[in-house]
Amino acid sequence: MAARRLAATPMTGPCILAIDNGTQSVRALLFDLRGDLVAKAQVALQPCNAGRPGWAEHKAEGYWEAVCEACRRLWLVAPAARGGIAGVAVTTQRGTVVNVDEQGRPLRPAITWLDQRRTDLSQVPRVGPLWRAAFRLARVDGTLRYFQREAEINWIAAHQPDIWRRTHKFLLLSGYLNFQLCGRFVDSAGAQVGYVPFDFRRHRWAGARDWKWQALAIRPGMLPELAPPGTVIGAITPAAAAATGIPAGLPLLAAAADKACEVIGAGALAPHVGCLSYGTTATINTTSTKYVEVTRFVPPYPAALPGAYSTEVQIFRGYWMVNWFKEQFGDRELAAATEHGMAPEALLDRLVEAVPPGSMGLMLQPYWSPGIRVPGPEAKGAMLGFGDVHTRAHMYRAILEGLAYALREGKERIERRSGTRITELRVAGGGSQSDAAMQLTADIFGLPAVRAHVYEASGLGAAIAGAVGLGLHRDFASAVAAMTRPGRAFEPDAANRCLYDQLYRRVYLRMYRRLRPLYGEIAAITGYPPPR
C-alpha cells in the first residue's frame, strides 16, 4: 500500500474525523465546522483480484489495515489534531460485502461491488407462488431473477455452504469498519446499497412478509442494527484506539454510503440541483424527499439526509476509464509527471485541450460494464467514427465526452420521472479536478458546471453527518449551508454547446439502441459477458 499526505492547516475549533474507504484508496480526513479540510492522509489499495474473469475480491482485513495506516499517517501530518477531534464518521464504497464470525473476524475475502459473478437459478431459494405470480403479472419477473442471481448472499450460500453456516453477520464494508472501530454490529441506514433485504422506501430492514426474505438465503439475525445518518452508534474502543491512534471513547457516528455523502458534501440538498460524481463509478444524483424510481422497479438509494432519497443514474466504471487510459496509453504523461513532480492528470488535460470539441467525430459509449436494467446485461463499450486523423488525444477527449453524454441522458431520465427540472450542477470526485472535464461538462449539459469547494466531497458529507449528530450544527440544512460552498464555475461556450447538442441528440442517443443487437450477438458468440 502506498500513502500520500497533505500538510495540515491550523485548526480553528473542533474537527470531525471522516474515514473514506473508496475503491482505489482509503483517506483519513479532518474537517472543521466550516467544511475546510484541515489534514489528510491517503493509503492506496491494491487492485482487486479473485483469479477469474469478472470476479473481484479484496482481503477484508486489508481494508481495516489501510484505515489504521491512514489514521497513523494523519497524526504525523497533524500531531496536535487528536485533541480537537469531536467524533468519527465512516463512509465507504457501496455494495462490498463481508462475512464475519461472532468475533467479527472475516471468514472469506470481501466480494466487492465490481464483482460480476452470479448464481445459477437452480441454486437460489425458491420464492413462493404468490410472489412469483405478482412479479409475472407486473411483467417484471426478470427483475426477481436478476436480483437472486446477482446477490452475493445466494452465491456464498450455494458455493461455500460451510462459510455460510459459520457466518454470524453479513455486513457491508461500512458495517465491518464500524464494528472494528466500536465493537458493535451496527451500520447506517444510509449505507445500505446492495443485494440485501432492505426496505428502500422506509429505510429499514424489510418486513417479515417482504419477498426479499424468500429470494435470499439469509435470516434476520445475520444483519446488523441500523441507525439513521447523523446519530451516535458507538464509541472508539481501546483496541481500535491502539491500532489507529484515534482517542478511545470518541463517539462514532452514522454517515452514509460514499455517493450519498458526496451529494451533500457538494451542497446538493434540493431536487433541482444535480450532483455529478466523477469517480470510479460516474453518477448523477439529486436529493429528494419524494420516492422516485428513475429506472422502473429499481428503487432510489437512501440519501445521507435521513428519510430522503437519492435519485441516481450510474455509469459503472465511469472515471475508471480515465485510469484505464492512463495505464494503457499514458506512459509519456506518467513519466513526465514523475520527472517534474506533477500530477499526470494535469498533463492529460493538455491532450484534451489539443483536440477540438467533438473529437473530430470520434464518439464513445461508456458502457465498460453492464448497468442495472439500463443499459442491459449485454452492454459493451463502443467507439464510432474512428479515422486516420485520430490519435490517443482524441480517444482521451472522447472518453470524457462520452461520460458527459451518458450523464446528461441520466439527467433527462431523472427529470422525466421526478417532474423536476435540474437547473444547477455540482461536480465532485477525482475527475472534477480537471478543468478540461469541467468545461466540456458545462458545454454538453448547457449549464454552468460548479466544482465542489473541496475535492474530498464524500468525506465532507460524512463529516457533515458527524457534526449534526454531535449537535455542532443544528440540522443537516444548517450544516450543509455552513460547511459547503460553490467552488469555481465553468460557463458553457455557446458554439461548443450547439455542436455537442447535435452530436448528443442525433448520434449519442441512437447508439445503444442500434448497437444493442450486435452486443447480444457478440456475447452469444464469445460467451462474454456471460448471460445473467
From TrEMBL:
Some GO term, biological process aspect, for this entry: which one?
Answer: carbohydrate metabolic process
Segments forming domain Carbohydrate kinase FGGY N-terminal: 16-265
Q: Which UniProt keywords apply?
A: Kinase, Transferase
Q: What is this protein called?
A: Carbohydrate kinase
For this chain, the family text in UniProt reads:
Belongs to the FGGY kinase family.
According to the UniProt entry, its GO molecular function terms are:
kinase activity
Any one Pfam family here would be FGGY_C
Which residues does the UniProt record annotate as the domain Carbohydrate kinase FGGY C-terminal? 276-469
